[in-house]
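Supplementary notes for students who missed Thursday's class. We covered one full example, reproduced here. Read the sequence, then the structure, then the short commentary at the end.
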Amino acid sequence: MTRRRLAAVALAAVTGAATLAVTGAAQAAPAAPAPHKPGAEVDFTGIVALSNCSGSLVRGPRSRDTDAALVLTNGHCLETGMPEAGEVIVDQESSRTFTLLDRTGEKELGSLRATKVEYATMTDTDVTVYRLDTTYAAIRQRYGIPALRLSPARPHDGTEIRVVSGYWRTIYGCKIDDTVYRLREAGWTWKNSIRYTPECDTIGGTSGSPIIDVRTRRVVGVNNTGNEDGERCTLNNPCEVGRDGDVTVRHGINYGQQTHLLARCIGKGNDVVLDEACALPKP
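Structure (token representation):
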């Protein structure tokens, strides 16, 4: 997850994100990957960079142009620290900033600012949703950039996907290899996780990158972890747990979390509505 997906601890300290890294995470920063040239089908439209992670400007099926815009990243990228297992954060004040990229990923268009954390958790999924101080319409008028759309449909195994990192300005291309019943890492457990084929060899700083369905161009998940050392169910070494309880370790394989449940919970005014119809974890 988590710390591997975070940037260097030294950088985190400078940017104020040191609360996301613990002593066991202290290690050299990963080398920047050679940049992919994005294919015609998916580019950096709607992609943002955080101080320690990646993210995206997103909208739900019921979002309107006049709504305050939303940014999606991981729960473990939260600036106040990683939520504990079972913890759900809603309506927490925030003034975090995000760097909006142009379609090529080569130019910074400007900064976007949050007013609050709309929703964040690392229980069942690994997601943070920030509410911004500006609307989709205003962002498009000023920068010419539309938001990515969250798909309300569950993604299928075998789907061609792109994982788009704003932090590294790199696009990873692969397929959804399988849907994992339970993915366990240290004290956290995630449901119905997306396992990538090996071509998506994501690294530190790619946390929070949107997983985009190449065919529909919609966001179907958010990148969050990978097994680094071949260990079993430990920090930075998630394991797969089957319905029968059998545990499988896949060294070097990376994962993301589905976002269709989030899409279905975004209601009027772009609020994450945690009612009975919403299957996301609740406070």
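Commentary. The two ends are 23 Å apart (CA to CA). Residues 83 and 121 are 6 Å apart (CA to CA). If anything here is unclear, bring it to office hours.
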